[in-house]
């Protein structure tokens, strides 16, 4: 499987975080949780999707992500390790579009961990390209057949599996009807 990055950008919340919510204190457990991001990949078969081109969905997902970040505002902030808090400064999240040079069926019928890592915005157990703690990054992968994989790396300091799924569902179900034909890995 070969993955080509098409674009990288920062998506900011569609509305600014109110001043009184700018400092998000981490819980005692989250303060002592290790710094790591965990990945989740959602696969969407093009045959079960609505009649929208993958690139158009990419643009629609950007808009939906910006709206959803207003409700999940700490994810668009910056970790302040010394204070055990998140500066909810609306810095934004990394959003990457990639083209996958194979069919979706090839990726999910014989999954290979080394291949699937290419679908992620960065390798979850390594420093990212900036050497900083990333709270959230998303990579939107378009397969040759029109199928899509949405890969999310999210900080365990801010989210567990359930809250990560709730966040992605909030982004993908609004005006996109991504839920039909979804497989989670």
TrEMBL record:
Pfam families: Transferase. Keywords: Acyltransferase, Transferase. Signal peptide: none annotated. The keyword Lyase does not apply. It comes from the Eukaryota. GO terms for molecular function: acyltransferase activity. InterPro entries: CAT-like_dom_sf. Belongs to the plant acyltransferase family. PANTHER family: F21J9.9, VINORINE SYNTHASE-LIKE. This is Vinorine synthase-like.
């Amino acid at each position: 499987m070969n993955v080509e990055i098409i674009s990288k950008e920062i998506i900011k919340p569609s509305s600014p975080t109110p001043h009184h919510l700018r400092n998000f204190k981490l819980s005692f457990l989250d303060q002592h949780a290790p710094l790591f991001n965990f990945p989740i990949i959602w696969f969407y078969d093009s045959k079960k999707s609505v009649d929208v081109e993958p690139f158009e969905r990419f643009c629609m997902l950007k808009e939906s992500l910006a709206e959803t970040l207003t409700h999940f505002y700490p994810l668009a902030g910056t970790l302040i390790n010394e204070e055990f808090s998140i500066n909810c400064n609306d810095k934004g999240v990394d959003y990457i579009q990639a083209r996958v040079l194979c069919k979706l069926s090839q990726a999910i019928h014989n999954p290979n961990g080394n291949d699937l890592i290419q679908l992620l915005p960065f390798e979850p157990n390594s420093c990212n390209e900036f050497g900083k703690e990333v709270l959230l990054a998303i990579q939107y992968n378009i397969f040759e057949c029109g199928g899509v994989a949405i890969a999310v790396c999210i900080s365990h300091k801010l989210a567990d599996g359930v809250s990560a799924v709730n966040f992605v569902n909030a982004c993908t179900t609004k005006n996109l009807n991504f839920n039909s034909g979804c497989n989670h890995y």
